[in-house]
Request: fold
Amino acid sequence: MEGRKIIIEPERETPVVGEFDVLVGGGGPSGVSAALSAARKGAKVILLEQYGFLGGMATAGGVHMFHVTRTVKGIYKEVLEYLKKLGATDPILPFSEMIKYFFTSGRIKNLRKELVSLFRDGTFTDMVFKKRGTALQFHPDILKYVLSDLLLKEGIILRFHTFISDVVMEKNKIKALIVESKSGREAIMADVFIDATGDADIAALAGVPYTKGEDSDKNLQPMSLLFNLQRIGKNVKPILPPGCVQYRKDTDLPHEKIIITTTRGGRILVNLSRIGGDATNVEDLTNAEIEGMKQVLSIAHYLQTHGFEKCALISVAPQLGVRETRQIIGEYVLSEKDLLSGKTFNDVIAVGDYVIDIHHSEGRGFTQRTIPRYYIPYRCLVPKKVENLLVVGRCISATHIAMSSLRIMPICMAIGQAGGTAAALAVEKNQSPRTVDVKRLQDELKKDNALLS
Ligand SMILES: Cc1cc2nc3c(=O)[nH]c(=O)nc-3n(C[C@H](O)[C@H](O)[C@H](O)COP(=O)(O)OP(=O)(O)OC[C@H]3O[C@@H](n4cnc5c(N)ncnc54)[C@H](O)[C@@H]3O)c2cc1C
Reply:
């Protein structure tokens, strides 16, 4: 912020409103898993979340779909089973059925060759389904309930509408987090902190080094504002507000590859917007939200006039979908080479099998590459410089390419489960997470149905 005017804030006393064994910052897929696993190992846990509900990208970001995986069980499966029991999941139509449905139902009259070929090239092909199982969309509002219910049952303290804005350090340890909410500015102390903010906010505040994007500080994957259409069986009246764009053909759309998934229940998740910027910069974020809404309404209008005439716009995600921001530098940096070679590690704590999936920041392309099963070592969760902190979710220590695969929700949940378990073990032995007995951590994870091979 060189050259900017500054003010000196007066010194102030901040009330400490709680002391915990483990504090989890962020209630997305990885934070929920971390909190649950830490509490189940006996730790007294608090979870802080800036919104009024859990789920992170799954709810706030409108990402209502778990990517298919055969390498994650544990807490992810538990959440999935709970959703299924409530009837809150809806399988995505495989490619062949989607096409059959579109053509034979006659509901989509103008489905064009380009659209078909774009579906064919996409992630959600029959081939992928056969290999990995069927992808599921879920009901985001039911997910919010399911996640809080699971956490509350374990006695975890939830604090919503609470933004983590600072850390108080004591040498190389975090003493407390400073939070802001309707109750004012407060401090919360813990023995071990888990950064599950997706953006590595806590780690960055604590001075952990990090990278951003492909080339250290640029080429972050773009953001997307997701929305849902619902087939309603009668024509809708398309709306194009002033300032929005009238697209004429598929290739005018912001995303050159059609990413639309349809469920048996007729809900259509549209992931076609594409907005550049750095989601850890509030000006970029503001501009991206405004641009995102413009793209959403323009795309919805295009779809409703090009085949999706009977589909109503039913919801737009509360916030932008953020694919990539900071990656911490930890004791090990997971790389593309590790993914491609399926390299194993003595301290493996999670396994992935999703493709390398990079939406390019510049231009319109994206890279998808099938890779073998790969392994994530515990050291990727252990940041440099700070002793009582673990980082989970998409912002762990990994390169731009490696993170493009591990960022999917089931894998983030597996990483979260490992982080929470490790934090509880560290508390139990009164030691730094850096020196946790990894063999014991792996045994505990296996006991809790996590897959490590
Ligand atoms: C457009 C898009 C499409 C995707 N599609 C899929 C898909 O189909 N399937 C799939 O499995 N994955 C998909 N993903 C990936 C996946 O959704 C995310 O990578 C994953 O949710 C990351 O989980 P996380 O727990 O690390 O972070 P997040 O889900 O981002 O959760 C972080 C949480 O921390 C909270 N938080 C952040 N900062 C603070 C703060 N300072 N104070 C308090 N709270 C804070 C946030 O509100 C949020 O709840 C997609 C992602 C995007 C963006």
